[in-house]
Amino acid sequence: EIPFQIEDLFSWFESRTKNEIHVINKAGVMMYELLRISPFTENSLLCAISFFRLILSSEGYGFRKLISFEEEILRNKESFNQAFLSVERNAGDLTIWIEYLSKCLSVSAGNELTKVMNLVGDTPIFKSESGKAISLTERQIAIMEDITLKNEMTIKEIRNILPMVSDDTILRDLKDLIDKKLIRKKGRTKGAVYVIGKVRSYR
User: What pTM does this model have?
Assistant: First the structure.
């Protein structure tokens, strides 16, 4: 029976387009059904969470290492259980379940934003290896925030967060951040990405 339920679930998943259902709703349905069907011999919750994150990531949501979505769920198992059981109590209505997952995403994303603000601050000042203070421009702050949240970014993704800024200016900002060792570039071709570098200290 389980294989047939899984087959039906993935058939439903593949038949739904972005225009038909929001990705969070789609991921939420998948997570709920995987928990309900329970096809895994162990760690069912973590496996279901992994599917949830994978679906979000496939649609461009950058929830990777920094955003600890599973920690937010595991922190309060009672809320998780109540949200999960609400579907059966409400004759299959997933509204409370989806709202619960959305809240967990919001809280975990907010926690990561706090980490970013601790990194860049209202008036960001970094210290180089020699102890010299380094200040950043607003453009550089925007770049640092996104790279910190997403772990890595391509030049195309960086252009998207600074649409009114010329390529030359963006490249100068990136070079300046690299020179200051706040970020580093991985790769040399068009597939190169920018990642957070090493900072001695910051405040």
Answer: 0.54
Nearest to 168 by CA among 139, 138, 145: 139
C-alpha 173/C-alpha 167 separation (Å) is: 10
Distance CA 109, CA 20 (A): 25
Tokens representing 146 are: 């996104």
pLDDT digits (tens, 9 = 90+) for 166-195: 889 999 999 998 988 888 899 877 788 999
pLDDT in tens, 70-103: 777 877 889 999 999 999 999 999 999 999 998 8
Q: Is the dihedral of CA 128, 203, 115, 164 positive or negative?
A: negative
Domains of the chain, by residue range, sit at 2-117, 121-202
> Angle at which helices 2-15 and 23-37 pack, to 10 degrees?
180
The dotted CATH code for 2-117 is 1.10.3290.10
Q: Which helix (H) or strand (E) holds 60?
A: none
Query: Any alpha helices (H) in 42-185, and if so which ranges?
Result: 44-58, 69-75, 77-89, 95-120, 138-150, 155-161, 167-179
Q: What is the CATH number assigned to the segment(s) 121-202?
A: 1.10.10.10
Alpha carbon distance 117, 121 (integer Å): 5
